[in-house]
Amino acid sequence: MWMIEHLRRHPKFMRYASDGNNFIKKYEEMVEDYKSPDGFEAWVSYLRKLRADQIEWTIGWLPMTEVIYMTASKGYLMMMGARSIQPYAPQRVLRQLGRYQVIPEEADLSNQVIELHPKATIPEALVQRDWNCCRYLKSNTQVPDPAKGEVDPNYVAWFEKSFYVYNEPEPEPEHVRPAKRPHVQAFDDKIQERLAWEERKKEYQATIHDLREKLRNVTFNNDLQAQEAEGERRRLVRENEALRA
Fold first, then answer.
1. Can you say how many angstroms the Cα of residue 92 is from the centroid of all Cα atoms in its chain?
2. Which residues are registered as beta bridge partners of 102?
3. Residue 111: its pLDDT value, please?
4. Could you tell me which residue, 18 or 200, shows the higher pLDDT?
5. In angstroms, rounded to a whole number, what is the distance separating the alpha carbons of residues 157 and 188?
6. Could you tell me the pTM of the whole model?
7. How far apart are the C-alpha atoms of 194 and 188, rounded to whole Å?
8. Could you give the 3-state DSSP secondary structure of residue 213?
9. Are 103 and 178 in contact (CB under 8 A)?
10. Has residue 214 got a pLDDT over 80?
């Protein structure tokens, strides 16, 4: 359900806030005109042709005024399930949260998975501590158009590079592929840079608007003065002609 909602546009459901509607019951209505690909090859072909502007990056019934994006000490949260505890890094999916997507902290989270079995030790206190010390993105960090899915230009290059690395063929047993260098991203700085740029952009637009208004006023005054000068010239011509007569 979640994937299908992302893979098609349905603007009439996009409210970006919680309300009293039951969106589980409305799911069939939301996808009634959507025909999903049939079979593995069809899905591969469909996803390869899918463009960013054909994706619904956010879910209309998901409130975006305040979202959790990391804990106070690390860039992921622990999600407790019936069979395992899985690490979840919201900063990797900021577009789905209506935020500007920057390069996330690059780390292998597979070793953070905790499989649950009768003898497993559940770090309940650790999970609770992390959730009690979450960091939030406030409403003023939202992008102007949540459906657009804005990204940092460097993110596209990073994603393509990461996709290539993770999908390249495994090396021969006698060769060991060198480990990837950990990528440290100043996440908060990028967000703040983006917000600061938006504020400067608004100031620039306001300045341009004021300058255009001043230019229009100057042009109007010049035209008015030219008309007055032309009127005065014609008056003097008429007076001279009257004196000669």
1. 11
2. none
3. 87
4. 200
5. 20
6. 0.54
7. 10
8. helix
9. no
10. yes
**Residue ranges per structural domain of the chain:** 1-58, 64-166, 189-240
Return the beta strands (E) in the chain as ranges.
67-71, 77-80, 84-88, 114-115, 134-137
Evaluate whether 144 touches 107 at the Cβ level (below 8 Å): no
Name 79's bridge partners. 86
Which amino acid is residue 215, in one-letter code? L
What SS3 state is found at 88? strand
- Residue 135 and residue 188 in contact, taking contact as beta carbons nearer than 8 Å: no
Is 95 in a helix, a strand, or coil? helix
Which residue do the tokens 């993770």 mark? 166
Residue 184: partners with Cβ closer than 8 Å, 6 or more residues away: 105
242/124 Cα distance (integer angstroms) = 106
- pLDDT tens-place string over residues 30-83: 677 777 788 899 988 988 888 877 777 776 666 777 888 888 888 888 888 888
Cα distances from 83 to residues 52, 79, 113, 114, in angstroms, run 34, 11, 11, 9
Q: For residue 77, what are the β-bridge partners? A: 88
